[in-house]
Amino acid sequence: MVAALSEAGLLARIFPRLAMDAGHSAATVLGPGDDAAIVSAPDARTVISIDTQVQDQDFRLSWPNGYCSTGFDVGWKAAAQNLSDINAMGARATSMVVSLTLPPHTPVAWVEQLADGLTAAIRELGASSCSVAGGDLGRGREISVTVAVLGTLDGGNAVLRSGASPGDVLALAGTAGHAAAGLALLESTHHVGQLTPQQRSLLDLQCRPVPPLAAGPAARAAGATAMLDVSDGLLRDGNRIALASGVCVDLDPASLDLLAAALEPAADLLGTDARTWLLGGGEDHGLLATFPPDVQLPPGFTAIGSVQALGIDEGPRVTIAGRAADTGGWDHFAD
Ligand SMILES: [Mg+2]
Q: What are the binding positions for substrate in this chain (predicted)?
């Protein structure tokens, strides 16, 4: 357990596992060892985001279906969520700082796995220019993992939520609703050992999300007008673009049907509606973006709707084929 080690002793176990090796990142001028790290910012601007995961709020160590979240899972997810927010600006992550709060009885191996998960997410998700520049260790009653990530726009302009115009194409990169289906499986009585490979892949995406990190900078380069990562579901995040841009975001029911098809087997198992996960489920961290109609969508993006002007007396909103999304608009067109 971590209580058996000094802070220096625990850091000595973690450091070799973090993506902080010399020469790994061009951004880290001075890594751990002094009171603060130094990172370069050739662009003269820094994109920055921070996110905290708290045990039993944002993750559980054991689930009703028998699955136990590993330190690797928690480290991966902490990195992936933060990398996704940099991606959603059209930027590229350059460095990270990590703050860990650990109960004294936490196994040292669990903390080592967490470091491995952080590093694996950075490397396997393709954020190869990002490294861990430093961090902090503390004790507390439950596990808490805070990651702050810095990124660069490489001289370009950020893609905000506010730039969508009527006539733009609405497009999605990555999956939607899969992590929500995975969460429902974790919270179900269907034992993890009896899931099909397809169901297991949904569970894995909840525990170790795979945001499409190449797609953010590609969308910026292609001229995306608005973008965010889907962390709270297509409806809520689509509504954020609608509100910020003062437009109507209209989803195409045929595209939604195609996206929902991958969720149907799990929905059948749990006796629920795949569309609930697709429209309301976040945590896949796909990218929802709008593009001018004459732009060829960058690799990874699929058109799923369009941006429309507001009618007289209409507020910004999300619709499905012109119908209010929260009043069964999709049902109406599903037949
Ligand atoms: Mg976000």
A: 58, 283, 330
Q: What is the mean pLDDT of the chain?
A: 92
Which residue in 79, 80, 78 sits closest to 58, CA to CA? 78
Residue bearing the bigger pLDDT, 168 or 17? 168
Is 334's pLDDT higher than 50?
A: no
Nearest to 230 by CA among 166, 299, 161: 161
**294 belongs to an annotated ligand binding site:** no
Q: Are 144 and 53 in contact (CB under 8 A)?
A: yes
- Which domains, from first to last, does the chain contain? 2-152 (3.30.1330.10), 169-334 (3.90.650.10)
Share of the chain above pLDDT 70, in %: 95
Residue 58 annotated as lining a ligand binding site: yes
- The conformational region for residue 264 under phi > 0 = left, psi -120 to 50 = alpha, else beta, is alpha
- Distance separating alpha carbons of residues 43 and 65, to the nearest angstrom: 47
Q: Tell me the DSSP string of 98-152.
A: EEEEE-TT--HHHHHHHHHHHHHHHHHTT-TT-EEEEEEEEE-SS-EEEEEEEEE
Report how far ligand 1's centroid is from the alpha carbon of 93 (Å). Answer: 14
Phi-psi region at 219: left, alpha or beta (left = phi > 0; alpha = psi -120 to 50): alpha
What's the gap in Å between 37 CA and the centre of ligand 1? 26
pLDDT (tens digit per residue) in 210-261 = 999 999 999 999 999 999 999 999 999 999 999 999 999 999 999 999 999 9
